[in-house]
Amino acid sequence: MNALTQPVKHTHLTTKRGKTRKKLITAGRDLIYNKGIENISIQDITEAACLATGSFYNYFDNKNAIIQAIIEDFQDLFSECLREHRGRLNDPAMRVSVTLKYYFTQAQDNEAWRSFIISAGLSDTHILAQNPKECRDDIGAGKKGGRFRSENVFITQSLITGMATNITLEIQRGNLPRSAINETIHHVLRMLGLPDIAAKAFAEAPLPDICVPTRDDLPADKNIPFRITVDRRSKSRDVQLQPVGLNPR
Asked: pTM of the predicted model, to two decimals?
């Protein structure tokens, strides 16, 4: 068992309320995997969680709310996987590069994540992305240490987040090749003030072995493209792009 497949040590709430909420999230997630979002009801979720139907509304207003909670749970898992490795990176440029590459790569390759958003009908509206506050902290640390240049950390973070969001989405849609990952990181590091040769070296460095969230019971099929082959969604595609986990904490 290597670092890429080891189980994620995720600390959940231990209160009764926290455990009940987690049961609903887990039941909802697994039902979406198995049936697709349009084929499940709130009653299905509560029955799978062995709870009364009315108990659902003690935690979530509607089905969309529990879907958002599932997405946030995914984001927490990915962030926790990356946290220990990030703590060992003293160079802010390396931290930014590794973090961007990790989220870019997992957005495309992680079977647990991509299968969920396909089954939930969200693959063209939701992505994995670094929490913006953490991104601002990385930029601020690099600026303070003289590694980065930024007149306004908030604007710089917004530019990086927007760039990462759009590039990830375009790769998912098949409009950009995977090489866009390294090219984007290269441009981000140059924007932060690194010399071109250094930015390119960081961008092209291989991603270290970092653990990722997995689902042991979810088969991975490399022959299934990320882009949706069957449109399961009943709602219009005309929705606002909502990057995952972008609410500052």
From this structure: 0.79
